[in-house]
Amino acid sequence: MGARVGALLLAQLLVRMQVARQGELGRGLPAPPGPMGAGPCGQRSIQSRVVGGKDSELGRWPWQGSLLWNKAHVCGASLLSRRWVLSAAHCFRRNSDPSEWTVQFGELTSAPSFWNLRASRRRYGVRSIILHSRPLKLSQGDIALVKLSSSVTYSKHIRPVCVLASSSEFQNRTDCWVAGWGHPSSLPTALPAPYTLQEVQVSIINQSRCSFLFRQPVSHSPARAAAICAGSEDGSRDTCRGDSGGPLVCEKSGLWIQIGVVSWGVGCGRPNRPGVYTNVSTHFSWIQKLVAHSTPRPDASRLLLSCLALLWAPPLLPLACAHLSR
């Protein structure tokens, strides 16, 4: 009987190793078919206040994370893989000590109850924070990678988002989405209890139009190659303070692609002043290099020893300023 169980576990191990070579562990960063290979990203099981937004549903944006400093929500974030999270560099302007940060996934509220054991299991410590540029120089790339101290467990409500090397095909789209726990308006009042995740559909505004709205030449426009403008021209749909670092996503062939990171805006919800997002595709190589090069391949001998150890293991016990960073 013991030999049969051992053979079965070994067979399962080999299958998992093969999947790892083809998927996330083999490539480092999950992505749709394309420059970075195939992976389990951009999918959600739930089908259907940000300014002009509405309450979201648990699992509708399974990559959405809450970046917590000393257990309080500061910024949004998105899950790229089991150990890597994407956010905005300016979120760490005041403090970049990894030990003081955690990231919460799989919760609809940014302030789960102390008695919510599920939430505590879905809260992950931070090992390192890597800024693309100095936090105060937003024009050089307001984007940051956060490496978690332990691996995220995927579930119905927690899954990674996809990223692509180019976002040009999403220009002029009117059906992209952004979500967050930030202020529901430009007023100083924060999102009220129970602090439910807000979502809003936004339009991607091309560079020439964005330059016109900001009354600036394209060379000085917020929508240079490193940035994307999105929202609505009448100001009815926008992000605001506390939404920084969150993902701007668009659907492509049934997969959700993150094309932007909430960065800054002129006030919140103002006419002709759309929100400005860091263009993820312009930093694709930087993300790929860091994530792929720091993701170890599975060690067959270590996995085999761990697997065989289970045969003898005892059973477990049941247990609004003008230039406003957002």
From TrEMBL:
Domain Peptidase S1 residue range list = 50-292
The answer to whether the entry has keyword Protease is yes
Which interval of the chain is the signal sequence? 1-22
A GO biological-process term? proteolysis
Task: State the superkingdom.
Answer: Eukaryota
Alphabetical list of SUPFAM superfamilies matching this protein: Trypsin-like serine proteases
Q: Which UniProt keywords apply?
A: Disulfide bond, Hydrolase, Protease, Serine protease, Signal
Instruction: Check the record and name the PROSITE patterns matching this protein.
Output: TRYPSIN_DOM, TRYPSIN_HIS, TRYPSIN_SER
User: Which InterPro entries does this chain map to?
Assistant: Peptidase_S1_PA, Peptidase_S1_PA_chymotrypsin, Peptidase_S1A, Trypsin_dom, TRYPSIN_HIS, TRYPSIN_SER
A GO molecular function annotation here is:
serine-type endopeptidase activity
CDD domains in the cross-refs: Tryp_SPc
A Pfam family hit: Trypsin
Q: What is the name listed in the Swiss-Prot or TrEMBL entry for this protein? A: Serine protease 41
